[in-house]
Structure formats: C-alpha cells, structure tokens
Amino acid sequence: MATITTPPATLQPCEHARGRALRSPPRAWRRRHCQAIRAAATGSGRQQQLETPLAAAGGEAGDVIRRLQNGPDVRGVALEGEKGRPVDLTPLAVEVIGESFGEWLREKGSEEEGQPQLRVSVGRDPRLSGSRLSAVLFAGLARAGCAVFDMGLATTPACFMSTILPRFDYDASIMMTASHLPYTRNGLKFFTKRGGLTSAEVEAICDRAAGKYVARKMGLGGGGLGMPPVVMRVDLMSAYAQHLRDIIKERVAHPTHYDTPLKGFKVIVNAGNGCGGFFTWDVLEKLGADTTGSLHLEPDGMFPNHMPNPEDATAMSLTRGAVLSHGADLGVVFDTDVDRSGVVDDAGAAINGDRLIALISAIVLGEHPGTTVVTDARAGDGLTRFIEARGGKHCLYRVGYRNVIDKGAQLNADGVETHVMMETTGHGALKENYFLDDGAYMVVKIIIEMVRMRLAGLEGGVGSLIKDLEEPAESVLFRMDIVGEPKNAKQRGVQAVEAFKNYIEEGKLNGWVLDDCGDCSVDQGCLVDNNDHPIDVDAYMYRFLLTSGVNEFVDITQVQSFVE
Fold first, then answer.
1. How far is CA 536 from each of CA 276, 508, 510, 551, 555, rounded to the nearest angstrom?
2. Is pLDDT above 80 for 482?
3. Interior angle at CA 300, CA 176 and CA 153, nearest 5
4. The model's pTM
5. With contact defined as beta carbons under 8 Å apart, do 342 and 426 qualify?
6. What is the C-alpha to C-alpha distance for residues 158 and 240, in angstroms, rounded to an integer?
7. Per-residue confidence at 512, pLDDT binned at 50, 70, 90?
8. Bridge partners (DSSP) listed for residue 30
9. Rounded to whole angstroms, how far apart are CA atoms 38 and 372?
10. Which range among 181-195, 241-255, 289-303, 529-543 shows the weakest confidence by mean pLDDT?
C-alpha cells in the first residue's frame, strides 16, 4: 500500500470586510508509513430501529453521556487515578458519540458530491488512553457509514486542516485530546470544513449518543455483524508542517537564503511532552533555525515534566531559563494539542495572556490598520488602551474560546473588519487562517515578524513591540471547583453565578456595579470598579463566598489561602 502524500496547501488571500466603527468598551511522530488497521464494528439496521425510541428516554443512564459535553468539546475521565472521579469516558461512550457524529454529518449533507462515503480523519495526542479509545471511535464512525483515516499523533489545528489541505480534503475530523488536563482525562474535538462545531451541535450529538448508550447497556445492540472496517493510516502532519514552512518562506522572502529564512536564529521549543515537538524538527530546523536547548519534545502521555500549558508557571519558567542560558532569540511553549501557545522573548520575558494578545494585535494592526480585536471579558483595560493607541478597536465578549471566535466571524459577516480573535488563555484565531485557533500558526506570525525586524535593522526582539503595554500591579487567577455529584455541577454553577450577580446588584461590594453597557457584548454586563482608589476587593469577595452559602458546594480553598 502506497504512502499517501500531499503537496503543501496554497495560502488563500484574505477577503476584507467593509470597516464600520465599533465603540470600544469603557474599560513520536516522525514520518509514519501508511498502513491498514482494523477496528471492531458492530451494528445492524434492526438495532438502529430499536435504539430510536430510547433517544429521548435515556434518563440517568443517558445523562452519563450528556455530562461529558464541555461546551463545543467532549471531555471526561478515561483512566483510573482521580480521587472522587470515576471513569466516565468509557470505550462504549466514545463509540456511540463517534457513531452519532457520523450520523449527524450525513444528515447535514457534509459529504462531497460524487463521494460514496463520508471521509473522516482522526488524530490524537499521546495520552495513555488514546490508542484504546481511538479503536472504538473508528468503529463508531464506520458503523455510521464513514470511511475513516487515522492520522495517529496529530495536533488539533492539523485535524481541521485535514479538511482543507489538497489531496486530503476530508469531510470532517475528530481530535482526541483533553488539552492541558491531567493524563487521566481525554476528550473529543469535532470539525467540519466550516470549522469547529458549536456547543449546540455537540449537545445534539450527545443527546443522540445518550439513546444509543442506553440501548447498548440494555443489550439491544452491539452484535458485531459483518466484516470489520479498514481504517487507512495517513501522514497528515508532514503536509501540515510543509504548509507552515511555506508560509514563513513566502512571507519573509529572505533576499539571500529564501529556503532557510531562519538561518542565524536560535529558537527554543518546550512541547511539554505533548504534540508540539514536530514544530522543532519539521518546521524550525528545516528552515535553518538552531533549536539547541529545546525541552520535552518527545510525546509522553504521562507528561512527566509539567503539564503542556502556556499558562503553566513551571513551563514558562523552564523555557525562560533555556532562552537565557542558550542566548536564544525566542522561546515557544505549546499546550498538549497545540491549539494554544505562548512565547518568551530574548530578554526572558514571558509573553502570554494579555501580553500575547497585545503582541499579535501589534503585528496584525501593522498589516490591517483599524481592524477590530475580539477578546474574552477577562482582558485588562491596559490592553484596550494598547489596541486603541495603534488605531484598532477592542471588542470584549463572553469567556470561552468558541464564543470569541464566533463573535469575530459574526462581526466580519456584519461588515466589521475583524482579523484577531483571542482569549486570555492563549487560544487565538486569525481571519487569514480560517478563523482557526492554532497555536503553531500564532508562533509562525511572531517568527515572521522577528525575521522582518532583523532584516529591517530594528533593535530589540519581538518583546519591544509591547513595551508600552500597561499591566496590572497584581493579577491572580483562582479556580474554584464545584464539589458534589457530577450530575448537579451545571446547576450549581448557575446558582453560584446568580448569587454573585445578586450580591453585586444589592450593593454589597462597595463601589462596584454591574454595568450593562451594551458596547462590549458581555453577557449579563461587566463588573466595573467605580472607586477613585482601589479597594481591598479580596476581603469583600471572601465575605461573599462565606455569607452567600456558595462555599457549601464550591471549593474556595485557593481564595481562602490567598486572603489569609
């Protein structure tokens, strides 16, 4: 069987929307050989008929599947080892979700004209549960009538690009990953040619899967009729890496060494033992960069050094140390599935959160003056002033990377030119790149600017582009887990948010109001400080957590430790 290869994808030019004023808010995979593998498949037309009446009557058993939905993704516990968290992302759960996705695709008419079958690619990160769960995912897709293509170890952005790149051009794709979560977790991210699925679409798929899950648990199916399907192994990552290399070469257009524009540059990559190692050997080194000192490049599903996460303090600290000790021009930190990234400049300064958004905004505003930048509502006032000072517009929106990206797409459809959509967690999408949150593409943008600056004879590294960004004197992030039965988690979360909203509206947080300003599109309004001088908010917040009763079902340990 011949290895499937593809030429690099052609970069499509941007279509610029008509500008309109938007008032800003006040405040181990090296190359793999193609091979055929077999996955167990089950099913018959009769069984599907038996399952149909159960779809709406799954009850508690069906809720096991519904609770796996996490916004536009599916996530759950795939391995034993978490205290108080049983395994819920079981092989059966994955199989019925995969089958339901395949059926959903067919109903939406996602197959290309002339294709006898829907063609779906599957990638995964190196988690220990990946191989076993991939096999049942293949089976579920095949049961729904899909032709399945196994990409092996891959990245989330590459999965989407498998629906775009020539000679792949699949109808849909699934990435099996749980991003930066512990090794015991796993999950699914879904794509069609138009991008990632919405939360409502994933909810519909999980509802369908819940009925199938109940039917199988009752023994109403899974007979294993017919021959197991053939799943084709394909090398997508080489084509995706070539795509990134071509972008860098074309946009730098180096006057003396076009094919090695990174010659003379030192770049450190910290892949955190996730999927980002390919960027070192298949992108940077092939373009001439020196990557000596790079960290944790080999995939390891136990993540033995630190979690692959650009928000992780250990990851950023280790990368900073490597940049300084090797005199590197840039350090790069990827999350597990490479849909997020952060960087460290040549002076050792970490660039993530608001700083990363500012850097990308500065680069893109130089290319598209006056464009709008959409971020989640956690971005600071200093970022707004930074963007406005460069002639851009800042639109704050609801937290959640899918919300931010969808808002940008909507603004463009409405005629508001919007080229940047970024969340403070590191998820970032650009209009020029299919509105795809791709950590590797963001780093490509930064690297291109770094090379251009040197060719222009400019002093300082990329960090100099954000030297006037105003940052808060102190910024602390607390994560408060909802405790108790998983089935009550969403209800408890809504209860906590409503309690906090009422606390503010009753004037119990001195000098703070919920400002439904209408400009920034933040659901339920912004929390705005009207005080002339900052107040000790921490004590007030702690008092709220204790007096409202929220602490009965929300773990406030982190807040308590900080206040004390």
1. 41, 13, 10, 20, 22
2. yes
3. 40
4. 0.83
5. yes
6. 6
7. low
8. none
9. 48
10. 529-543
- State the Cα–Cα distance between residues 389 and 513, nearest whole angstrom: 27
What is 237-298 written as a DSSP string? Answer: HHHHHHHHHHHHHHHH--SS-TT-TTTT-BEEEE-TTSSTTHIIIIIIGGGT-B-TT-B--S
User: How far, in Å, CA of 87 to CA of 128, rounded?
Assistant: 14
Cβ-Cβ contacts under 8 Å for 506 (sequence gap 6 or more): none
179 is catalytic: yes
Helices (H), 283-341: 313-326
90-127 pLDDT, tens digit each: 999 999 999 999 999 999 886 555 567 899 999 999 99
| Residue 8, pLDDT above cutoff 50 | no
Confidence bin at 522 (pLDDT 50/70/90): very low
CA angle 538, 540, 542 (to 5 degrees): 70
Name the token pair of 80. Answer: 């034993």
- From the list 487, 500, 482, the residue with the least C-alpha distance to 553 is 482
Neighbouring C-beta atoms of residue 447, cutoff 10 Å: 28
Q: What percent of the chain has pLDDT over 90?
A: 64
What would the two tokens of residue 424 be? 């403070």
Name the maximum alpha-carbon separation found in the chain: 73
Inter-residue contact 334 to 269 (CB < 8 Å) = yes
CA 165/CA 156 separation, integer angstroms = 14
Identity at 332, one-letter amino acid code: V
Annotated catalytic residue within 100, 179, 238, 294: 179
Is residue 499 classed as helix, strand or coil in its secondary structure?
A: helix
Placement of tokens 């599916």 in the chain: 74
**Number of CB atoms found within 10 A of residue 288's CB:** 15
Query: Are 245 and 287 in contact, with CB atoms under 8 Å apart?
Result: yes
What pLDDT, on a 0 to 100 scale, did the predictor assign at position 552? 84
Neighbours of 112 (CB within 10 A): 11
